[in-house]
Design brief:
Shape: globular
Radius of gyration: 16 Å
Strand content: 15-25%
Number of strands: 6
Structural class: alpha/beta
Helix content: 40-55%
Order of helices and strands: EHHHEHEEHEHEHH
Number of helices: 8
Distance between the termini: 30 Å
């Protein structure tokens, strides 16, 4: 069974400070930076067999100037069709692949997260996924984000909260 992670692309970029500078430059720059980050993650880690990033259709994708789907190693980038949202495309993918693969969905969008539960997929917040890809060995993607906590700080905070809340 394949272990696939599917990411709501623009939702992730807009909710993650690590891509703020690139986003200030352009949406295309932020998208390229995010995809490069995922490629680096795939080189360093084998946690997922495939990473699929879904973006809402852009005018250049809808007009045929950009491919709707491209693949680079274990990272697949998809653009929704004109008139279809990335959220609906992710929902359709979960429905069509629920028995063939173990799916993890990354999005802070309630619509996407709720459908992940419907289709028995795991759900992960954008922040949690950023912590995962910025973990030791991938920390170069946290540069320029002086407000971000590093992996060890987050781990310490989680352990402290578990003790306070008496969670095993």
């Amino acid at each position: 069974m394949k272990n696939i992670i599917i990411i709501d692309g623009y939702n992730f970029i807009q909710r993650t400070r690590a891509f703020k500078d690139a986003l200030d430059e352009s949406l295309e720059a932020a998208r390229a930076s995010f995809i490069d980050c995922l490629k680096d993650y795939c080189i360093n880690k084998r946690a997922f067999d495939e990473i699929i990033v879904v973006f809402d259709a852009s005018k250049s994708a809808a007009s045929g100037l950009m491919p709707r789907t491209s693949r680079n190693g274990r990272v697949t980038v998809m653009f929704s069709s004109c008139g279809e949202s990335a959220d609906d495309m992710i929902k359709s993918f979960m429905r069509d692949n629920k028995s063939a693969s173990r799916l993890t969905v990354v999005s802070d969008d309630n619509y996407v997260a709720n459908h992940a539960r419907v289709y028995s997929a795991d759900s992960m917040s954008c922040r949690d996924f950023m912590v995962l890809i910025a973990a030791p060995g991938n920390a170069q993607h946290n540069k320029g984000d002086d407000k971000a906590l590093d992996y060890e700080q987050i781990k310490g905070i989680n352990e402290d909260l578990k003790r306070r809340w008496r969670i095993k």
